[in-house]
Design brief:
Four copies of one chain form a homotetramer. Chain A is an all-alpha fold. Helix content of chain A is about 75%, strand content about 0%.
Amino acid sequence: MQALENHPPTDPLQDLTMALRQFAQARDWEQFHTPKNLACALSVEAAELLEHFQWLTDAQSQALTSDKKNQVAAEAADVLLYLLQLCDRLGIDLVAAAQQKMLRNAEKYPVASARGSAKKYTEI
Amino acid sequence: MQALENHPPTDPLQDLTMALRQFAQARDWEQFHTPKNLACALSVEAAELLEHFQWLTDAQSQALTSDKKNQVAAEAADVLLYLLQLCDRLGIDLVAAAQQKMLRNAEKYPVASARGSAKKYTEI
Amino acid sequence: MQALENHPPTDPLQDLTMALRQFAQARDWEQFHTPKNLACALSVEAAELLEHFQWLTDAQSQALTSDKKNQVAAEAADVLLYLLQLCDRLGIDLVAAAQQKMLRNAEKYPVASARGSAKKYTEI
Amino acid sequence: MQALENHPPTDPLQDLTMALRQFAQARDWEQFHTPKNLACALSVEAAELLEHFQWLTDAQSQALTSDKKNQVAAEAADVLLYLLQLCDRLGIDLVAAAQQKMLRNAEKYPVASARGSAKKYTEI
C-alpha cells in the first residue's frame, strides 16, 4: 500500500514510449526516425493490417481464426508503436488529442441527427 | 486519498474504448463498424496523417508550425480511435500486443548486430 | 493514310508522362518530385480512393451513383498520374512491368489449382 | 504494312484489362473482385511500394540499385493491375479521367502563381 502510494501505477503508453526511445537509442536508429519516415512507416503498417481483410467478406472479418487474430494483433501493435514514436518525436500528447477529438466528434455528430440518417457513412 | 484507494486510476485507453462504444451505440453506427471497415478507416486516417508530410523534407518535418502540429495531432487521434475500435471488436488487448511485439523486436534486432549495420533500414 | 504512316498513333501513357514532365518543369516542382515523395503521394491518393468505399457494403460498392463514380474516377486519375511520374523518375517501363507481372501471376496461380481453392484470397 | 493498316496497334492498357478479365474468369476469382475489395488491394499495393522508400533519404531514393528498382517496378505493376481492374469493374475510362484531371490541374495551378510559391506543397 505504502509502495503503491509512493509509486503510482504508470501509464502503459508512457512506458511503451520510454521503452521505444531506449530501443532506438541503443541501436542508433534515431537518425531514421524523422517524423516523415515514421509517418510513412505508420501508413505501411496500417496497410499490412488491412491486407488481412482485403478479400474477406464482412462476415468473415468478424470470425477470424485464433491464428489470424494473432497476426492482426501483431500488425495493430506495429501501428501503435509507430504512432507512439511519431507523437514522441513531435511532442504530441496522443491520449489528450484523442479525448479532444471525441469531444469534437460529439459536437459534429449529435445523436439526434446522426441517428438514423448516418450521413457520415453514406455520404462521404 | 480514500477515494483514490477505492477508485484506482483508470487506464486511459480503456476509458477511450468505453467512450467509443457508447458513441457508436448511441448513433446506431455499430452496423458500419465491422473489423474490415475499421481496418479500411485506419488505413485512410494513417494516409491523411502522411499527407501532411508528403512534400516536406526531413528537416521541415521536424520543424512543424504549431498549427500544423495540431492538425497532425488530430490525425494521430483518428488513427488511435479507429485502432482502439478495431481491437475492441476483435477482442485484441492492444497494449499487451505492443509489449509482446517489443520483446520480439529485441530478439530480432540484438543491439550488437543491429547497431551500426542498421540492416533493417537499408535492406528492407 | 499517309499522315497515319508518318505519325504513328502515340501511346496515351507516354503522352501523359510527357505532359506531366512539362507540367512540373513549368512550375519548378521537380524539386518536390523525388521518388520517395511520389511514393508517399501515391499511397495518399490510393487511400483517398479507398475512403469512398470504406463504409459501403460490397453491394453498395457495385452500385455507385454517377456523381460518386466521377469522384472515384478523379481519385483513380490521381493514382495513375503519380504512378506515371514515379516510373518516369525511376526509369521504369510501367506497361512492360505489368505484362511481366501477369506472366508471373499465371505461373504462380495455375488455373487447375487456383480454381475453387482460391487460396490466395482466403489464406493471405 | 497491309497488316498494320488492317490491325491498328492496340492500346496496351486495353490489352492488360482484357487479360486481367480472362485471368480472373479462368480462376473464378471475380467473386472477390468487388470495387471495395479492389480499392483495398490498391491501397495495400501502394503501401508495399512505399515500404521500399520509408527509411531512405531523398538522395538514396534517387539512386536505387538495379535489384531494388526491379522490386519497385513489380510493386508499381501491382498498383496498375488493381487500378485497371477497379476501373474495369466501375466502367471508368482511366486515361480519359487522367487527361481531364491534367486539364483541371492546369487551371488550378496556373504557372504564374504556382511557380515560386509552390503553395500546393508547402501549405497542404
